[in-house]
Design a protein that fits this description.
Elements (H helix, E strand, L loop, with lengths): L11 E9 L3 E3 L2 E3 L3 E8 L5 E10 L6 E3 L4 E4 L6 E2 L8 E3 L7 E5 L5 E2 L3 E8 L5 E11 L5 E3 L4 E4 L6 E2 L8 E3 L7 E5 L5 E2 L3 E8 L5 E11 L5 E4 L3 E4 L6 E2 L7 E4 L7 E5 L5 E2 L3 E8 L5 E11 L5 E4 L3 E4 L6 E2 L7 E4 L7 E5 L5 E2 L3 E8 L5 E11 L23
Parallel strand pairs: 1-5, 7-13, 15-21, 23-29, 31-37
Antiparallel strand pairs: 2-3, 4-5, 6-9, 8-11, 10-12, 12-13, 14-17, 16-19, 18-20, 20-21, 22-25, 24-27, 26-28, 28-29, 30-33, 32-35, 34-36, 36-37
Length: about 400
């Protein structure tokens, strides 16, 4: 009979707790799920030991993220900006070796129209996350659009200048960001100009961007010059009862707001030949073709004496009283005048005058202007009447006695 000396020892039991991100190799076996795992260890003395692995496959540590410094960009033509992808600018790290997800808010492609705070978020495989912000600032570099009105026309004042008004309201302006850009003009409102002028309108938005346009201001002179004629004047017909007009353009006082040397013309023209009283019209025309007129009367006088030629001396006879009654000799002349065809002819002694000796007959012609000339001829008076003789009656007379002693 044999005897067995059996000793039973209690097994050794041990616990291990582990926290891993993904898996753990324990006693040559990989574990990748959370749970309690046991392993039996057999000692050389034949005793077993049981160890337990309390495995937690998880991550409780948030990743780290560092954002970039503030970023700058530019508004587009709509004064907005479509957000870019800024996630690549973040510096991230995590305790576990899984890929990290970085997102941004506002999201990529979002449209913003003002400076914006961008928030970047990093999330690990276990949904742990961290955030950081940075500022995105915008600058407007797009100049406003400005359209000038078409060229315009205006008129000089009496001083031949023009006061520039406010043309800024005539511009058509749009801007991507600024609803009310500032509009300026050159020359400025109230400036005095005295020639055609280029008007420049400039639109400046709130960001300092500016655009300009120009148009032409054409200035016209619509004010007539003034002209004052001298009073009526008197001239004289020539020997042909004509008058050649002189230059009367210097007989005016003229003034014009713009033209220092207006043109003065006259009607009838210088050198024209007139045969009667004439109205002289003087016209002044400035450089803008504005015209004014004045007139005066040219009164023409005849100062040329008519020509008279008497016939040769004539003879006539006394009457029985040894007198002679002067007859009408006014038709015994040849008369010429530069202007008149009818004249007044008088004689001295007058028709019907009684003369008793040879007489000088003077004939005077007077034209319608009162000019007169005379001529004369001799009237020789002859006695053609025989004397009358009456004899007395017969008479008786006596001889003389001659006594001789």
């Amino acid at each position: 009979m044999a005897t067995l000396n059996l000793t039973i020892n209690s097994p050794k039991i041990g616990d291990t707790t582990a926290l891993v991100c993904d898996s753990l190799q324990w006693y040559g076996v990989w574990y990748n799920s959370t749970g309690a795992y046991t392993h039996i260890l057999t000692a050389t003395n034949g005793c077993d030991s049981i160890v337990t692995l309390n495995l937690d496959v998880n991550d409780y540590i948030v990743p780290t993220i560092t954002c970039p410094t503030s970023q700058a960009d530019f508004f587009n033509a709509s004064c907005s900006f479509s957000l870019l992808d800024y996630t690549a600018l973040a510096v991230v790290s995590d305790n576990c070796n899984y890929p990290l997800t970085v997102t941004q808010l506002p999201s990529i492609g979002s449209t913003v129209n003002s400076n914006t705070a961008i928030t970047l978020t990093v999330t690990d495989n276990y949904n742990n996350s961290s955030t950081c912000p940075f500022n995105l600032t915008f600058t407007d570099t797009i100049s406003p659009s400005i359209i000038c009105p078409s060229d315009t026309v205006n008129y000089y004042s009496n001083n031949c200048d023009y006061t520039i008004p406010d043309y800024t309201s005539f511009a058509t302006i749009t801007d991507n960001c600024d609803l009310t850009p500032t509009i300026t003009q050159s020359p400025t409102m109230g400036s005095l100009v005295n020639s055609d002028t280029v008007i420049t309108l400039t639109a400046t938005d709130i960001s300092g961007n500016s655009s300009s346009c120009t148009y032409n201001l054409t200035l016209l002179d619509s004010i007539k010059p003034t002209i004052t004629c001298s009073g009526d004047t008197t001239e004289y017909f020539d020997n042909n009862c004509l008058f050649t007009l002189g230059d009367y353009t210097g007989r005016v006082v003229i003034n014009d707001n713009c033209d220092a040397n207006p043109t003065v013309t006259q009607t009838p023209a210088i050198g024209s030949i007139v045969s009667s009283d004439t109205t002289i019209i003087l016209s002044v025309t400035d450089a803008s073709n504005n015209i004014s007129v004045c007139s005066f009367n040219l009164i023409l006088l005849d100062s040329t004496k008519p020509s008279i030629v008497c016939l040769v001396d004539t003879s006539d006879y006394y009457n029985t009283n040894c007198l002679f009654s002067i007859i009408d000799y006014t038709n015994r002349v040849i008369v010429l005048d530069n202007c008149d065809t009818s004249f007044t002819i008088t004689q001295t002694p007058t028709l019907g005058s009684m003369v008793s000796s040879d007489t000088v007959i003077t004939l005077t012609v007077t034209d319608l202007s009162g000019n007169s000339s005379d001529c004369s001829f001799n009237l020789n008076l002859l006695d053609s009447i025989n004397p009358v003789i009456s004899c007395l009656g017969d008479t008786l007379d006596y001889y003389l006695s001659l006594i001789h002693i």
